[in-house]
Design goal:
Layout (H helix, E strand, L loop, with lengths): L1 E2 L2 E2 L13 H4 L2 H15 L8 H17 L5 H10 L19 H13 L3 E7 L2 H19 L1 H9 L15 H11 L3 H16 L2 H15 L2 E9 L3 E7 L4 E3 L12 E9 H8 L5 H10 L14 E4 L4 E4 L5 E21 L5 E7 L12 E17 L4 E7 L17 E5 L15 H20 L4 E4 L17 H11 L18 E4 L6 H19 L16 H14 L1 H23 L6 H10 L1 H7 L10 E7 L3 H16 L5 H8 L4 H129 L14 H5 L1
Antiparallel strand pairs: 1-2, 3-17, 4-5, 4-14, 6-7, 7-10, 8-9, 10-11, 10-12, 12-13, 15-16
Helix pairs in contact: 5-10, 9-17, 9-19, 10-17, 13-15, 18-19, 20-21, 20-22, 21-22
Amino acid sequence: MDYNGIATNAESTFPDPLSSHEKKSSDSYGIKYAKAIFSEWGSLDSESSLYRRRFREFETSRDYANGTQDTSKYKELLSSLNPNNGDGSLLNIDWSPVPIIPKFLKIVVNKILSSSPYPQVEATDPLSKNEKDLEKNKVRVRIENKDFIAQAKALGIEVDTDPDKLPQTEEELEIFLETNIKTDAEIAAQIATQMTLSWNDYDEKVHRRCVEDLVTCGLAVVKRNNDPNYGIVTEYVDPARFIHSFTEDPNLSDIVYAGHIKRMSIAELKRIAGNKFTEEEYERIAKAVRNKYSNNPNRFNDSRYDSGLDSYHYGYDEYTIEVLDFEFMSVDSMIFEKKQSRYGNVGFYYKGQMYKPQANSVYDREPVYMYNATVYGGKFIIGCDKIFDYGPKKNVPKNIHDLTKTRLSYSPIAVNMRRMIPKSLVSGVTTFADQIQISHLKIQQAVAKAKPDGLVIDIEGLENVQLGMGGELQPLEIQDIYEQTGVFYYRSRNPEGGFQNPPVREINNAIRNIEQLIGHYNHYLNMIRDTTGINEVMDGSSPKGDQLVGVRQQAMAAGNNAIYDITNASLVLYRKVCEDVIKCLQILPPKSIIYQAYERAIGKANMDVITSFRDLPMYNFGVRVIKEMNDNDRAYLEQNIQIALAQKEIDLEDAIAIRQLKDIDQAERLLVIRRKQRIKKQQEQQLQNIQAQSEANQQAAQVASQSKMQEQQVLSQLEMQKIQFEAQLKAQMLELEYKLKSDLESIKGQYDVYSAQASIDSSKSLEEMKENRKDDRVKKQAVEQSKLISQRQGERGELPEEEEKGFSELLS
């Protein structure tokens, strides 16, 4: 086989695909198949191999996409074009690449990821279709009997459907059926699919990297691993290390084998392979890679014993090896024997792979072959003829309606494919990025070589310049004065009377060719825009006020068309992954741990519906990937909703229902339908108002005459009520006056009693105070008399005179 003009190795002979199942399951068959794959693609060390060419193509595109491309070619080019080689102008140049391509890469990737996709699971098998048709007919019947259901609800009868939530017209019914009618199997499958992707962080970890690969490399790959103990895992695969059979289909739907090359250490290999190889075999593997992959050959013989772990550690455990993780599709035949009994009945009996008709049989016997698609796979250690984890793949998702078809666990997608090398958006603009980089470097070189502003000094004009005292200025002195002051005096006429030019003039030294270099830079920037289709409107570099709305919409549509192939490829890849997830869910063993995890997550009933593989007919699901509205679509829809609300063409409930839809087309259709319904309802209300007004005018005369009679009756009644009210008021006033007077007399009596009691208490207190004062005086006189007697008897001297105490002290 010849890939892009590269002749493959003559040893790339694949083993016999018609071999028996037992032979295909042997390691020798797997090793031969892996060596044939490796021979077709070649190694990374071979310059002529397809693997190296595509790897180098992808890595170069990734360098440009990150703005880290090699700058050595720019240095060589500028050095060869520099006429003054060695002048030092290249020493001061910043050789860092201009990050132009990363800007366009982010614009495309973020544009695609701005509308988050989500799977819309639809069952396509006849059973599900009949269930959906039956449910749709039930909804139509409910809509036809909507008034009857509303009346029953008003009477208090319990109904299973709210009539207010049913569609009003056939058009609205179609939208309602598209978005709301789903079978139990579809609901369960959609919930389980979204939950599986969420558990794997698919949108954050895998999907974004795949979109970046589609823009950078033109190829994106996702691998699905289905294990009952570890669950359904979506794994990112580097497209630079992905290999596959020959195809020209961008969807890679016709590939027979696929795989990817992984680098790992021998220690990691021991962990994965386990007891598959002995230590002597690991040593031979290390010898084969001792001088490859930057392995240190001096570490080969290093070894030490770890007493704690009771094991040896060898120096070659750190060696790096390459492992080809591959798988291929094949067809195994299942042989049944058709045998007729003596009663004339025909039976079929399974005979396995090896079948030999019985000789001299009394009854008719003939073999019947049933072909079953199978996937084989394993991990091949490159350069060592060793393989592990090889055999027929288990838990391969299939469609029960066609067991002869299966698919690999890889889900690849390419933007386009030409001779096995995809062409990406980044690879198409690398030459323009190189020209932009060269323009940027030459601008720096021109700036480095630019001369400063100078002066032109006319020597003859300086001869007549004098500076007083008969002194003359030298040219350098005049230059110093001019540089310091910026002023220069000279005579406009020479001694002969003729005019003369100023002896000092400035030279403005502009950067040479700067305008041409800037134009060259902008030219190739526009070339990138033209090639990628990302215009100024799409990348936001053109202000909104510079263009009309219609022009901007056309420019945005042109940009979307330019990247449509990348957007579509990302959606196809998303759909492939979701289809794989659903098929893997349907074949989960009921007793596995992961099955129990799904049961706890979405319910036992839902898992019973999804995993009905053993029950015929099985639900056959199709996945339609729908993208949520982007910011522009949502803003446009919201603008229309606000206009309709302002003009009272829709209600708030209608606006809420429209905003809940994720598809812009369905949202716009529902907006139109609800707007028409609202306008029609307003017209009906206007007619009803006109009829009500006419009926009101007819009844106005009758109401006027009746109102006059009623008015007179009311006036008479009011007069009688007024008289009665005045009488009642007068009686109440008299009663209130009597009550106030009695309360006043009662208060006066209480005051008199209080006053008499207070007078008695005051007199009593005064008498008590007098008696106390009298007792104090008597005591004092007795003391004084006792002192006088003692003095007379000579027992004590004269008494000192005491100051008179105040009234307050005597009281105390």
